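Lab notes, practical 5.
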Amino acid sequence: MTRFPSVMKSFVLVAGLVVGGAAAQAETLVLVAALNPAAEVPPKSSKATGTVQATFDTKSKQLHYLVNYKDLTGPATAAHFHGPAAVGVNAGVAVGLKGSLESPISGDATLTSDQASDLLAGKWYFNVHTAANPGGEIRGQMVSQ
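Output from the prediction step:
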């Protein structure tokens, strides 16, 4: 009977290491994009610029983003994360933004496993659309920092 407490202590220690190890593998990653008209496909002529700053929690798959832009040809009519796509390639909307599109834009999205893989592989871009540029006025590829 005296061995039982010793065995239980060992089990609890090993279980704690396994659970603790899994928790230690979750990370919060920082991703960014520089938005400009030359990155649009095809490139646009505009003085607009912008940035996307985002964090991604690898465990919860929660993406939090902050978008700032200036000097668009008119009010933003849409803004999206697109993917999967390499630089210079267009793709469908992966995550659309809702609500006000006035700069700054902030929000959250929970990604699927496939979306998370594409985002972390650099296969997502963000762009802002206007009436003068309905396909997008400024764009930037999301990259890890």
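Observations recorded by the TA: The mean pLDDT is 88. Strands lie at 28-35, 49-57, 62-70, 76-82, 93-96, 105-110, 125-130, 138-141, 143-144.
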